Amino acid sequence: MLWRNLAAMAMEEMFRANPIDGLVLLGGCDKTIPALLMAAASVDLPAVVVPGGPMLNGSFRGRPISCGTDVWKLSEEVRAGGMDAAEFRRSESSMIRSRGHCNTMGTASTMAVVAEALGMTLPGVAGTPAPDSRLLEASHATGRLAVDLVRTGRRPSDVITKASFHNAIVALAAVGGSTNAVVHLLALAGRLGIDLSLEDFDRIGMDVPLLANLEPSGKYLMEDLFRAGGPLAVLQQVRDLLDPTAITVTGEPLVDYLADNEIYDTDVIAERDQPVQERAGIAVLRGNLAPAGAIIKPAAASPQLLQHRGRAVVFDSIEDVRARLDDPDLDVDADSVLVLRGCGPKGYPGMPEVANLPIPKKLLEQGVRDMVRVCDGRMSGTAYGTVVLHVAPEAAAGGPLALVRTGDIISLDVRARTITLEVTDDELASRTPPAAFADGLASPARGWERLYVDHVQQADTGVDLDFLVGRTGPVVGRESH
After folding, report:
1. Which of 77, 146, 382, 473 is most deeply buried (CB count within 10 A of its CB)?
2. Which helix (H) or strand (E) holds 204?
3. What is the rounded distance in angstroms from the CA atom of residue 172 to the CA atom of residue 210?
4. Angstrom distances, CA of residue 185 to CA of 340, 341, 444
5. Is 43 within 8 Å of 472 (Cβ atoms)?
6. What is the mean pLDDT of residues 100-116?
7. Residue-by-residue DSSP string for 300-328
8. Angle at alpha carbon of residue 353, lines to 444 and 108, rounded to 5°
């Protein structure tokens, strides 16, 4: 988020400072599409997105291999002693077969799908592989559309409405998209002055079925999704859940582009009556451990851990994790709840993707492959596991996560939407954060990091900078040369 916000601010200034009539926004990896959309929304010039597209499927040992999720899986096998380092390096060199972003339903693919569901792409372009000539064809068509957008004066504020966010949340659940989309959509809504909250993600997404059988929630990759019919074929199956009033950059409703989108492989894109999972929406949790909310992705979690009670094992920083996680004397078992704090928007700084803590080595050797983990940071969209993320307020901002001690009992109940620290209010009030935690927090003295830490918002409102919320428009009041 440190760099998403810097990119968004820099692009907003460039869009406003130059004599630009309209924007074609070229984005790919995780933060670029969100940053582009945030900047374009604040300037509110006519704009359209061209997603860069995923890479083609890799292959290793005769089977497809992904550049994201398989890194997590195979690295754990190395730590467990089931794969040697040389073989892991060979797998790594097999993952990236072509240009393009990650080929799982990670954050990059998710944000391309979300941009399309918001109405900000030429309909049908999201998910087109980067090397595919049809992406070049769509890019030409987008260039013509951009000229039309300038001519008609259709702006992001005309296209992205509350109805558009509704459709984006439905799409996010139906494709099993990244948890990172939550903070990006909240930040974009803030730029547009649209009331969007964590509760909207739960209310709209909770009953949406998972239809895209893609890693990390399934077994296929983005090239397979494109072959099977693409994101619009997924949305066709949940058309009744979409808001029909939301338009696209073409001026026509998104739902008008869904009718002719067939599914060509029902193992990759499931039909509505036989979904991959019945309910796939990102769940919003609350409780005394997360008063302003936290999230979990049930589609990528272990079902048996979605209701769990265990003893906390607390780490005060990512350096603390690296120093102690694999210590044979670490007092941890498969029922423990791993807690990592100090990794939120302010604390790291930047809310890094470290929340999917590795499993302690001694547990890996016993066959354990998932545990409940709790963190105020984020995790990669390619990652998986029963991970409670984006705990707000973060520990560095005075959140209760700073007061958890090893040995405390934490209970998770995703169905009830709760995350509870089983410690009395009086006991919590008597505690102070440990010195090791405070010492691990970011404390930049100057520059961009200082500005960021002083002004960044919390996860429940999108982790934008407080002075960038809202839109100013494209007008330059005074000559700035």
Report:
1. 382
2. helix 198-205
3. 9
4. 25, 24, 28
5. yes
6. 96
7. GS-GGGSEEEEEEEEESSHHHHHHHTT-T
8. 120
Residue among 444, 357, 443, 429 nearest 398 (CA) = 429
Q: Is 367 exposed, middle or buried (0-12, 13-18, 19+ CB in 10 A)?
A: exposed
Estimate to the nearest angstrom the gap between the alpha carbon of 81 and the chain centroid: 31
Q: CA 139, 141, 145, 147 torsion: positive or negative?
A: positive
Q: Which of left, alpha, beta for 277 (phi over 0: left; psi -120 to 50: alpha)?
A: beta
Tokens 């969007």 belong to 196
Helix (H) or strand (E) holding 227: helix 222-228
DSSP-H helix ranges across 23-179: 32-43, 69-80, 85-95, 107-118, 133-152, 156-159, 162-174
Q: Is the dihedral of CA 186, 189, 193, 195 positive or negative?
A: negative
Distance, CA of 335 to CA of 327 (rounded, Å):
17
Listed range (88-97, 125-134, 431-440, 466-475) with the worst mean pLDDT: 88-97
Backbone angles phi, psi at 161, to 5 degrees: -120, 180
From 415, 387, 393, select the one nearest 290 (Cα to Cα): 393
CB atoms closer than 10 angstroms to residue 442: 16
Q: Which two tokens stand for residue 326?
A: 């694999």
d(CA 215, CA 299): 10
Quick one: pLDDT at residue 37? 98
Whole-Å CA distances, 231 to 55, 163, 422:
16, 18, 42
Q: DSSP letters of 465-479? A: BGGG-S---S---S-
Strand duo 63-65 + 337-340: pairing: unpaired
Single-letter amino acid code for the residue at 28: G
pLDDT digits (tens, 9 = 90+) for 195-219: 999 999 999 999 999 999 999 889 9
Is the C-alpha dihedral spanning 415, 417, 419, 424 positive or negative?
negative
Q: Crossing angle of helices 162-174/107-118, nearest 10°? A: 140
Q: What is the DSSP letter of 417?
A: T
Those residues with Cβ within 8 angstroms of residue 273's Cβ, 6 or more apart along the chain or in another chain: none
pLDDT in tens, 145-167: 999 999 999 999 999 999 999 99
| Spatial separation of the C-alpha atoms in residues 178 and 21, rounded to whole Å | 33
Q: Write down the mean pLDDT value for the chain.
A: 95
Instruction: Please report which helix (H) or strand (E) contains residue 373, including its range.
Output: strand 372-375
Residues 400 and 368: beta-carbon distance below 8 Å: no
Give the pLDDT confidence of 33-50 residue by residue, as tens digits: 999 999 999 999 999 999
Written as six digits, the tokens of 208 are 């949406």
Mean pLDDT in residue range 267-286: 94
Q: How confident is the model at residue 383 (pLDDT cuts 50, 70, 90)?
A: confident
